[in-house]
Amino acid sequence: MNFWGKCLEWSGWGVDISAPRRDKCVICVAPHTSNWDFLIGLAAYRSLGRKANFLMKSFWFFWPLKYLLRHFGGIPVVPKSKGGSSLTDQIIADFKSRDYMNLAVTPEGTRSRNETWRTGFLYIAYGAKVPIQLGLIDFARKRVVIDEEYQPTGDIEHDMEVIKSYYAGAAPAARYPEKFTI
User: How far apart are CA 91 and CA 165, in angstroms?
Assistant: First the structure.
């Protein structure tokens, strides 16, 4: 067992990642109601010897934290600029140019209650032709779960409906259940 696995074990957390190991995929993680989600998810994935990238506001990429965040797979999200390519296009290009990329996303886009989930991860997965693995960080049972995989169709409304149906009963798993909604 590596360092990450020992940290989880010492804190009473378990890992149930049964979705197939992929060189390229988007990992959809919800509910996202706490900063602890990031640390626990990172530890769980690393405990299996896997690395994942993640999107984070560029605000957090200041010296010296930016080196640590990039080391752990952080990709800064820069506010939109006129004339530049979109973040979605940039991430699709990253998927196409790399041999390995597992991108963890939180579709809510915030730790606050948000009924309108972001769709960028669906466009990314469809554009990069990679599956979406579905998982959650279950604070009630102290388990990190990634157990299903979905291949997006390109019909964003339908794809989002399928993804949200997976998370329909997930509120009790959230650190702060009142902040989660589909």
Answer: 26
Residue 30 is given by DSSP the state -
Q: Encode pLDDT of 19-68 as tens digits.
A: 999 999 999 999 999 989 999 999 999 999 999 999 988 999 999 999 99
**Long-range contacts for 69-72 (Cβ within 8 Å, ≥24 apart)?**
72/42
Which stretches in the chain have pLDDT values below 70?
Answer: 81-84, 114
Kindly report the pTM of this predicted structure: 0.92
Residue owning tokens 């991108």: 103
| 8 Å CB contact between 135 and 17 | yes
Residues 6+ apart with CB under 8 A from 170: 30, 31, 136, 180
- Confirm if 31 and 108 have CB atoms less than 8 A apart: yes
Other CB atoms within 10 A of residue 117 CB = 20
Token match 């296009």: residue? 89
Name residue 91's amino acid.
I
Work out whether strand 53-57 and strand 14-17 pair parallel, antiparallel, or are unpaired. unpaired
